[in-house]
Amino acid sequence: MKNHFPRTLSTFGLAGLALCAVAAQAHDIPDQYLYIGGHASQYWFDEDELGPNSYDTVTLPGLQFGARFAPNWSAQAWWERNGVKSEITRERTHVSLALASLRYHFHDTSVGPFEPYAGLAVGQLRFDHRGRDTDKETVAGAEFGLQARVAEHWVFDIGARPLWTEWRDRFEGEVYAGLNLIFGATRKAEPEPLPAEPVVRDSDGDGVPDQQDQCPDTPAGVAVDAQGCPLDGDGDGVPDYLDACPNTPDGALVDERGCQVYLERDVRETLYVEFELNKAEIQQEFIGELAQLADMMRKYPSAQLRLEGHTDSTGAASYNMRLSGQRADSVKNSLVNSFGIDPARIDTVGFGEEQPIADNSTADGRAQNRRVEAILQATQREGLYED
């Protein structure tokens, strides 16, 4: 077999340079498509094995069709035919080549604008002699090539095939260039891009994002709750990191350091709680006044409450004395049972009709005298008062 490889490589190289001219128009090749096209190849024969009918080369135009059925795989049917003369007898013969090939495409690889591929081909080489029998032989080999999409519906294909032929165990080959019209092109759906992770800012570094932080600018290192606010264990409104007096009683009035504010002078409240005749039960409409008194006692948890019961002058003095005490006790029981005040903080006493504040000779005066005086007593603390 003559050495035609330099000529083959030269032809192949010229075709490659021609393709570079369309590189600027190249497009990505689809994942799947069908195609039909035409081509031209240059086929080299093994002259040493063909005897007196020796052939050199022949240009074979032809057609091809195929399917790219996966991003990396395609199958192709190939047919080409032309006349050729014997180098010795000058007899004219028609040569045709039919092939079926399976190609693997390096879909994620590129050589410039081209996608490389490699494959296997098998088929039949046929010689139609004038006036003589037709010679047929099986051929098989590999193929290597490059493809580029030069327009929306067109793919350019260039490659080479080294082939083994059945008769006399010859090795031949061809280079080719083809243009394919593609249709039914699809591309594998690209995965939806993941949404960008939102930028989470925590300006004060307390572990709670700014958009949830109800207390921005918390000092570094301060323990916070889920809303980003400093913890306030005793609920006095002064955060723990500033609270000089933790565990203040619930509801107690505190200063800016979180320490309990003590009552410094007695506070007297007159409760005009009406009772039914000869009874000590508190009517529902007067519960609101007791609620205010209970709230004041919670603000000053160290203060004691003194309840003084009074009556008008109607009835016997001894009876009024007893009734006034019962009414003071009734107020105490309501504070304890309805508002949760510690009974140890409340003292009661009855004065009967002895301390009127209005004229008992009139109905209005008698109504004012039927009362309970509530005295919230100042806390006796060492150094608070002078003798």
UniProtKB/TrEMBL annotation:
<keyword id="KW-0812">Transmembrane</keyword>
<dbReference type="Pfam" id="PF02412">
    <property type="entry name" value="TSP_3"/>
</dbReference>
<dbReference type="InterPro" id="IPR036737">
    <property type="entry name" value="OmpA-like_sf"/>
</dbReference>
<keyword id="KW-0813">Transport</keyword>
<dbReference type="InterPro" id="IPR003367">
    <property type="entry name" value="Thrombospondin_3-like_rpt"/>
</dbReference>
<keyword id="KW-0998">Cell outer membrane</keyword>
<dbReference type="InterPro" id="IPR006664">
    <property type="entry name" value="OMP_bac"/>
</dbReference>
<feature type="region of interest" description="Disordered">
    <location>
        <begin position="192"/>
        <end position="220"/>
    </location>
</feature>
<keyword id="KW-0626">Porin</keyword>
<keyword id="KW-1134">Transmembrane beta strand</keyword>
<dbReference type="InterPro" id="IPR050330">
    <property type="entry name" value="Bact_OuterMem_StrucFunc"/>
</dbReference>
<keyword id="KW-0732">Signal</keyword>
<dbReference type="Pfam" id="PF00691">
    <property type="entry name" value="OmpA"/>
</dbReference>
<feature type="domain" description="OmpA-like">
    <location>
        <begin position="262"/>
        <end position="380"/>
    </location>
</feature>
<dbReference type="Pfam" id="PF13505">
    <property type="entry name" value="OMP_b-brl"/>
</dbReference>
<protein>
    <submittedName>
        <fullName>OmpA family protein</fullName>
    </submittedName>
</protein>
<dbReference type="InterPro" id="IPR027385">
    <property type="entry name" value="Beta-barrel_OMP"/>
</dbReference>
<dbReference type="InterPro" id="IPR028974">
    <property type="entry name" value="TSP_type-3_rpt"/>
</dbReference>
<keyword id="KW-0472">Membrane</keyword>
<dbReference type="InterPro" id="IPR011250">
    <property type="entry name" value="OMP/PagP_B-barrel"/>
</dbReference>
<feature type="signal peptide">
    <location>
        <begin position="1"/>
        <end position="26"/>
    </location>
</feature>
<keyword id="KW-0406">Ion transport</keyword>
<dbReference type="InterPro" id="IPR006665">
    <property type="entry name" value="OmpA-like"/>
</dbReference>
